[in-house]
Amino acid sequence: MIRFYALGGLGEIGKNLYVLEKDGKILVLDCGLKFSDVPGVDFLLPDFSYLEKRSKDILGLFLSHGHEDHIGGVPFFLQRVKVPVFGSRLSLELVKANLGSRATEYDFVEVKAGESQELGPFKLNFVEMRHSIPEALGLYVETDEANIFFTGDYKIEVAPVSGKPTDFKTLASIGDKGVDFLLADSTNAEPAMMWNGSASAGDCLTEQQVYELLAKEISESSGRVIVSTFASHIDRIQQILKIAEKEGRSVAIEGRSLIRNLKIAEKLGYLDGLGHRIVTAQTLESLPREKQMIIASGSQGEPLSALVRISSGTHKRVRLERGDKVIIAAYPIPGNERAVTDVINSLLYKGAEVRFIHSSGHPCTGKDHQLIMLNLLKPRYLVPIHGEWQHLVGHAEIGKRAGLPSENIFLLENGDVLVYEKGKGQPRVKKHGIENVGALIVDGILSKVEAAVAVKERMKIGSEGVVVVEAVFDEDQGIWLVDTVMLGVVTESSQSSVSQTLNGVIARMLNENTVSDPEEIEQRVAATIKDYLKGMNQYPEVVVRLNSI
């Protein structure tokens, strides 16, 4: 029996974690994070609790490439489930960097495209895939019941500016050999009905076109140039350094993750000997502005990132001047649009020129990349993965165009289980077969996984405000003394009078109270405050503290 399910990555962008199970033995495919716009939350992780319970059955974790939405959860996963990790050299180095000194505690197995590995009931075959980071791998899994191909993230680029293209020859050979299930990247696929009866624009630029546009914008700039991109977009950073070399510009790096990843990329030979273009911020400041370039983190509007601090004027070293050009070389991840727009507005307000230049590292619907993949691999069944619902549904439509019948295309949710038994007819889906497929909340400040209730409290405080009541029982006088503090509930001018009124109402209630249970008293105080403020159409979070002196 073969089972497939996802704990993240279906119906969303990020926290990709997929699971193949054969006769009770488990292979995990990727383990990523998802960025969050929730106050105080750095990112979200898949809920690993089901896999924790099955830890003895897990044979290994395969990483398709080194982007955070595919590897960012690995350090947290390994703390709970200690298994071998398979991946390319770059992917593993990036994971080790995230783990820091703890990396030596775990078993990493470096694999290369063209190699194969036996792992219990699975035969793993690694395939070169083109993406926006080097050493991306697809995975062809052979078993005695069915063969599965997992694309990971990919883009069909016939003549990339740098690196290797997707290995079409091997893909065609695998298609001839036989693919039962295709688990394929759905990013950029959208239902035809959403775009006047035709496919969406989705006609991505080639990397060569992106390079030429970047080169043009940088060469035409008479001032300083700031380029912001993903810290893990090694190919794009390589392009920028090539242009800096051609234009005679020196480059400073702003952003800890960028600095870390560039050190790894240089060690592995992915900067093409251009590391000498990188200088310190102090050295850059001593040069004419037309010789300056900065590569900065913050293309997604992350609150503490370099670009956000530059745009707000709070960066310690970089001050924008009129005539500076800022190139954002990344599309906003869904959910980050507002934050990116805010950064752009701040940049423009300060007189900078702003350009968006990017091309997706995923399949381009306008160029039929997903259709090409289907025609190469010729699967019996299609399982769209990696995307929001519009992408999954769009990918299913492409599957039908490729000739697959509707019943051979499976649109799954996180937690659904696809079950296949050879010789027993069509695969079947067990809806919500895996429980606890929500998100784990990671607070970077506290470095711990928090309960979901904390997020609900933060969201409510952010939208409705908070009332804190400090009630102290004076044992000498035998009375309650009350102080109420409100934040974000009423206007500043009325806050004093409302607080005084609440102090009096709560003090009278407590002094007339006959209940002795502290928890019940707190509940009564909170209910009284909520009832009072409800009349003002206010619904804040209420915190009650009881003490005695």
Describe this structure in words.
- The chain has 549 residues and is an alpha/beta fold.
- It folds into three domains: 2-196 and 362-452, Metallo-beta-lactamase, Chain A (4-Layer Sandwich); 207-356, Metallo-hydrolase/oxidoreductase (Rossmann fold); 465-548, Ubiquitin-like (UB roll).
- An eight-stranded mixed sheet has the order 8-7-6-3-2-1-20-21. A six-stranded mixed sheet has the order 9-10-11-12-13-19.
- α6 runs parallel beside α7 (234-247), α10 (306-312) packs across α11 and α15 (492-511) packs across α16.
Short description:
By secondary structure, the protein is of the alpha/beta class. Helices cover 32% and strands 23% of the residues.
Note poorly predicted spans: 194-202
Query: Mind telling me the CATH class of the largest domain?
Result: Alpha Beta
Count of DSSP H/I helices: 16
Q: Indicate the percent of residues in helices.
A: 25-40%
Layout: helices, strands, pairs:
Blueprint: E1 2-8, E2 17-22, E3 25-29, E4 34-35, E5 43-46, H1 49-53, E6 58-62, H2 68-71, H3 74-80, E7 85-87, H4 89-99, E8 108-110, E9 116-119, E10 122-128, E11 137-142, E12 147-150, H5 168-177, E13 181-185, H6 207-219, E14 225-228, H7 234-247, E15 250-254, H8 256-267, H9 281-285, E16 292-296, H10 306-312, E17 325-328, H11 337-349, E18 353-356, H12 369-377, E19 381-385, H13 389-401, E20 417-420, E21 428-430, E22 439-443, E23 448-450, H14 452-464, E24 466-474, E25 479-487, H15 492-511, H16 518-534, E26 541-548
Parallel strand pairs: 3-6, 6-7, 7-8, 12-13, 13-19, 14-16, 14-17, 15-16, 17-18, 24-26
Antiparallel strand pairs: 1-2, 1-20, 2-3, 4-5, 5-22, 9-10, 10-11, 11-12, 20-21, 22-23, 24-25
Helix pairs in contact: 4-8, 5-12, 6-7, 10-11, 15-16
